Amino acid sequence: MKRQTDIERLHDEIQELIDDLWHLPRFVGGRRGFRPQVDCIRSEDPPELQVVVELPGVDPMSIQVVAADHVLVVAGERRRPEVSGRYQQLEIEYGPFQRRIQLEDPVDPASATARFENGMLTVVLPIAEQAPQAERVSIVIRGRA
Length: 145
Known about the structure:
- The protein contains one helix and nine strands; from the N terminus they run H-E-E-E-E-E-E-E-E-E.
- It has one helix at residues 2-22; strands at residues 38-44, 47-54, 64-67, 71-78, 95-102, 113-117, 120-126, 137-138, 141-142.
């Protein structure tokens, strides 16, 4: 019975360590900026990839989207708002970000579209029948003010 208690205690200590690693104070310097969450959905009719990037609090004018045949790059910055006073708690990630999303299928970057709505960026990339020549295309985002 004592052995099970020791194993449970060890499990709890490991879990605390993992939790601590994910909650580093910002002044430690272990983390820079934030890493937006991404979903990538492939549909068959029509054959396309839909990439959704969660960007709450990001000024849509700061977002750049570039696509090539097997990669999508989304970059920008979420700026910390100016406050008068001092923080009592500081958890929200701010700063520059860049997500490089590897795509399994070749896409047609020239036909890609993007829209930004309610803090969500949605990029639609048509699947190419054959890999296009290596060209990088900046994608214009609809919904930017």
